[in-house]
Amino acid sequence: MTTGAPPVSPAGDSPDGERPPAPPVEPLPVAVYLLVEPMVSGKRVLDVSPRGGGPGLEFLRRAGAAEVISCVPHGPSLSVPEPGADIVLCGLSASWSDEERGVWLAELRRVLRPEGFCVLRLATVGLRDHARAGAGMRTACADLLLAYFATVDIVEETQFSGVSFHAPGTEDLAVNESLTRLSGASGHFVALCADCAERPWNLTESLLVPTDAGASTETGAGGVSAGELAAWQGEAARLEAHCAELARERDGARESAMTLQDRADRLERTVAVLRKDVERYLRQITDDAAARELLDLERDELRRNLAAATQQAAEAARELERRQVALRTIEKEVVRLRAARGEAGRPTGKT
User: Does residue 154 lie within any of the structural domains?
Assistant: First the structure.
């Protein structure tokens, strides 16, 4: 659920009804809201600004924030339950004293929930007194915030207002990081602070916060500085050279694709011939298998016939042997009968 409630007037009014002067809270650029946008889903977001509302809050609502509260502070306190916010957004002014800054950082930490975090925007000019010899502004900013928070990440802004773009044909956001090296020294830091050891935010390895930091160089026609114009011209020349290289690569890729297509056509024809040969061989193997099966059946039939003929021959041999024995017996009987008849017809010597 999101809410567009009017700015919250915190406690801290004087007894006579007059409010103390408001602390110099700076408005946040839209880029800070874009930075936080991927992390606000289901979160309660508190925006501390010198004027309530703004286009940045609409980004947070569309990103799925459970509640978005705009707070215009009066005095070093916020009328927010303790703890009452998952994410707090605030721009710290460079004109604050160390005491005022410390009170305000403690107040921001107070309204945070245990797993919440603050997104603070600080001007580098207000950190010069904290920068030690040999240490940069980033170190000074981290040392200042680590006195109040357990975990701190620092992100530098750039002076370019348009170095990110949507890649054609995709939904990806492309960031041109080479221009950041030409933008000069950073005028502001964006610090993500939490009072826990684990980071509740998730930043990419390559992060660019494109904001118009108000470069001090003279501007020409259209409000573009000479340095920025030169940077854009150099970048345009680099992109043209890159496009030419891509065009050459595209032509080479097309030639390679045509060569591969010709090879694929030849291979397709070869595969078709091989497929026909395989089908013919399969039919031949099938026919050979059928013929072999018929030969096996004929062989089995011949074996059965041979076995039957062998059995009949054995029986005939036994029958022949019986008949030969009977014949020999008959011949012996004939010989005996002839002998007996001869003896009966032979004349005796008596008269």
Answer: yes
The pTM is what? 0.50
Residue 306 included in any domain: no
255 in any annotated domain: no
Residues 49 and 75: beta-carbon distance below 8 Å = no
Query: Does some domain include residue 147?
Result: yes
Which domain CATH number covers 67?
Answer: 3.40.50
Question: How many structural domains is the chain composed of?
Answer: 1
Range of the domain at 110: 25-216
Q: Are 121 and 143 in contact (CB under 8 A)?
A: no
pLDDT tens string 262-310: 999 999 999 999 999 999 999 999 999 999 999 999 999 999 999 999 9
